[in-house]
Amino acid sequence: MEAFTTVLEGLPLTLWLTFASFAIGAVGAIPLALGLRSRCTPVRMLCRLLVDFVRGVPIIVWLFVLKFGLTFGTFRFTPVQAAILGLGVVSAAYLAEIYRGGLQTVPAGQLEAAQALGLSRSTAFGRIEAPQGFRIVSPSVATYLIGLFKDTAIASTIIAPEMVFQAQSFARQNPDQGLITYGYAGLLYIVLSLPVAYFARRLDRRLREAAH
Amino acid sequence: MSWLNDWVGFLPEMLDGLKISLLVAGVAILAGYPVGLVLGLMVSSAHVVVRTVGLVLVEAGRGAPALVILYIVYYGLPSIGITFESITAACIGLAFSAAAYSSEMFRAGIQSVPRGQLEAADALGLERSSTFRRIVLPQGLRSAVPGLMGVAIQVFQGTSLAYGIAVPELMKTAYNIGSQDFNYLKVFVLAGLVYAGVSVPATWITVYFERRMSRRYA
Q1: Which of A59, A64, A163, A192 to mutate to test the interface with B (most CBs of B within 10 A)?
Q2: Which backbone phi and psi does A76 adopt, to 5 degrees?
Q3: Which chain A residues are within 8 Å of B158, Cβ to Cβ?
């Protein structure tokens, strides 16, 4: 039982890492997604390269660069800051790709219709493209959120005291309980993902019904 | 340009690390995909016990973070008397992960084979087993290819987590080089470039295959 409560002590930080980095990613992905759809080829290529590069480097490398690599005089990121920033940057790249995919599925005819009605490009985007795109991407965004929640485990490698870090320190002191301790951590991730998956499905259904 | 000089100096050691990363990824994929195919078939089985066992394994492999799976295999199993070398533990943990993720690709691929094909096979009097082997499997596997390539890239990136169980892969190598003079930035940036140098072209190839596939079925 002690193993379980120790792991649980890391839960608030795990949740904070998830939500803070998701917030950075969800907002940061908007300009990136627009860049990926830009009609200006250099902008589009640059954003494509940036997104692919960020996604091509494993999260642990991002966290190590931010935690151990970057020093400005005496300034260093704390483990939690480095984790939020690193996971935020990676989320922005993944979510940009998800947003782009969603916007792409909005039929071109809708934009032509908006143009024929004399709507400006920004109105057409804000009132017609984005709302439909949002409905399409909401399940993928929820899936990404669950993935991000699990990826926060990597913050334990830069000594952010989240769930896996707590599990590690407990298992080190109680080697005979190693399996059960890590087992609890794994189980907590699985169990805690369930409500997000449930709400995502409900949201998706509601948005679909609202569209009819 | 001093960075470039240092990078050239780091490169031989980094490439040794990359070799271990690729080895671990290769073993995990080669061992994980066949298990993934079996898991995918179990999940779509009509038999309730088989389906439940399949689902539990797949959900465990996809639901728990890969890092936790590695820790369970390397640090956890010894508490019940099962001990692996770190590289073996990394291969086992990532193979399990690869199996769980690929099972979904296999299942989706197999389900994408049109029902009419099965009815046609039935009408031709083919047995169920040969229908599966000669008609469903080849087509299902082909449409699973882009997804499986995506999982392979994910597994390659996942080898960086083996750092946490002291496997001398790319990340661990970078850390060791960096700790000699505490100039971590240089070597971690190089590590990132090496990872991206493998993952990014692989992603582009995957996208190309996806496009080709969707064109064929469109």
Answers
A1: A64
A2: -135, 150
A3: 58
Asked if the C-beta of A198 comes within 8 angstroms of chain B's C-beta atoms, the answer is no
Please enumerate in sequence order all residues whose Cβ is within 8 A of that of B11, keeping only pairs 6 or more positions apart, or say none.
B190
Counting every residue, how long is chain B? 218
Q: What is the pLDDT along chain A (212 residues), one digit of tens a residue?
A: 899 999 999 999 999 999 999 999 999 999 999 999 999 999 999 999 999 999 999 999 999 999 999 988 889 999 999 999 999 999 999 999 999 999 888 888 888 898 899 898 888 888 888 888 888 898 899 999 999 999 999 999 999 999 999 999 999 999 999 999 999 999 999 999 988 888 888 888 888 787 66
pTM reported for the whole predicted model: 0.92
Distance CA A140, CA A23 (A): 16
Report residue A39: phi and psi, to 5°: -80, -15
Q: What is the ipTM of this complex?
A: 0.91
Decide: B101 and B151 in contact? Cβ < 8 Å.
Answer: yes
Looking at the DSSP assignment, which residues form a beta bridge with residue A75?
Answer: A72
Using an 8 Å CB-CB cutoff, list chain B residues near A60. Answer: 160-161, 163, 171
Residue B153 near residue B202 (C-beta atoms within 8 A): yes
Q: Which residue of A has its CA nearest to B204?
A: A52
Residue B191 in tokens: 């590590």
